[in-house]
Specification:
alpha+beta, six-stranded antiparallel β-barrel, 14 strands
């Protein structure tokens, strides 16, 4: 016997037919809600221009440290003031090419002018005194020479008489007393001449010593004059070496004290690069590593020769020495870029790391 079971009257075909427009409206609502939800979710995504896309590569991987800085001369000359002065004329400005005799500044000091005039007067006075004493001593020696000639003439006369009396004494014409007397006069005159010669030699030594003493005084006055003259000469400030005027520390009309810095001269043929690198990368850089300098459009090979142990504003200074001739546009204080080669690896997989990621650390990479 068949038993009729109660059906689900709400899900019959007839019911679906009666609810068709309501179901269509609900489906449209779901699509709209889904679209709105998707639109809302997509608005929080990053734009394509904000993403850094990296490609994994295999091959040679070079590790480098980039830096920037300036060309500096490894031999510089600092010019300072030797006396108080006033800047009267500025002849050259920073950046000018100079030789050893190039005049950079002209300065003045009235006191130096007065000291120079006084030193010159004292020197000339002492020179005149030396000439006077030389003439005086020459006159004394001439007088002694005259006395020597006179005594020599007396001796010759006594010797002539002695010779004549000797012959007469043999014949008994003259007495023995007269003959003995002439012999005594000859001996005494010979002794007088000997004493006179010794006196002459002593006087000559004394005169020479006195003249040398006065000449020493002249040398002292000359030294004092030369010192003041050097001060006067240094009021005209010269470069003192070939190169470039890097710094000028004074201006027109300025008064300067002794020891004041005036100018800095750097050579053009011994330029090294002073490069700043981040402190975080300084442990990768070592002496002797190769580097490449970018000087304008020119690339120059270099080598690391010095690493400053100090840290300034998060940077470490590294000195690079060029291994080849620098281009013609190279000069002190010229800005340059540098790439230091700290390592190289062959046959490795690598991808450019995100910015501001330290070595041996972990960071998220989106793939």
């Amino acid at each position: 016997m068949d038993i009729v079971k109660p059906g689900n009257k709400g899900l019959t075909p007839k019911w679906f037919a009666s609810k068709r427009w309501l179901l269509i409206a609900a489906a449209v609502g779901v699509v709209v809600v889904g679209y709105a939800t998707r639109t809302t979710a997509s608005s929080s995504n990053l734009s394509r221009s904000a993403l850094v896309v990296g490609e994994v590569k295999k091959g040679r991987f070079d590790v480098t440290v980039d830096g920037y800085g300036e060309l500096k001369s490894s031999s510089t000359r600092l010019i300072t003031s030797v006396s108080k002065a006033t800047v009267e004329e500025v002849m050259l400005k920073p950046g000018a090419k100079v030789t050893a005799d190039s005049v950079i500044l002209r300065m003045s000091n009235p006191q130096v002018d007065r000291d120079l005039s006084l030193a010159m007067e004292q020197l000339e006075t002492e020179k005149i005194s030396v000439q006077e004493i030389i003439l005086t001593k020459q006159r004394e020696l001439q007088d002694e020479d005259a006395k020597m000639l006179e005594e020599q003439s007396k001796l010759e006369l006594f010797e002539i008489r002695q010779k004549a009396l000797t012959e007469l004494a043999k014949d008994g014409i003259v007495s023995k007393i007269d003959y003995a007397e002439i012999n005594l006069k000859v001996v005494q005159q010979q002794r007088n001449i000997k004493i006179q010669r010794e006196r002459y030699a002593t006087l000559q030594r004394i005169n020479n010593s006195q003249i040398e003493i006065r000449k020493k005084l002249v040398e002292q006055k000359q030294f004092a004059y030369d010192r003041v003259l050097e001060q006067k000469d240094k009021l005209t400030v010269r470069a003192g070496k070939e190169g470039t005027l890097q710094q000028l520390y004074v201006k027109l009309g300025q008064s300067v004290e002794p020891g004041k810095d005036l100018a800095l001269i750097g050579g053009d043929k011994d330029l090294n690069a002073q490069i700043k690198i981040p402190q975080s990368k300084s442990d990768l850089v070592h002496l002797g590593q190769s580097a490449k300098l970018s000087i304008g459009a020119n690339a120059v090979q270099a080598v690391v020769v010095q690493i400053d142990p100090g840290v300034v504003d998060g940077s470490v200074t590294v000195e690079l020495q060029p291994k080849q001739v620098l281009p013609g546009n190279a000069r002190p204080n010229l800005n340059v870029d540098a790439v230091i080669e700290v390592g190289s690896y062959d046959g490795v997989l690598f991808v450019k790391r995100p910015a501001n990621v330290a070595p041996n650390s972990t960071a998220n990479v989106f793939a």
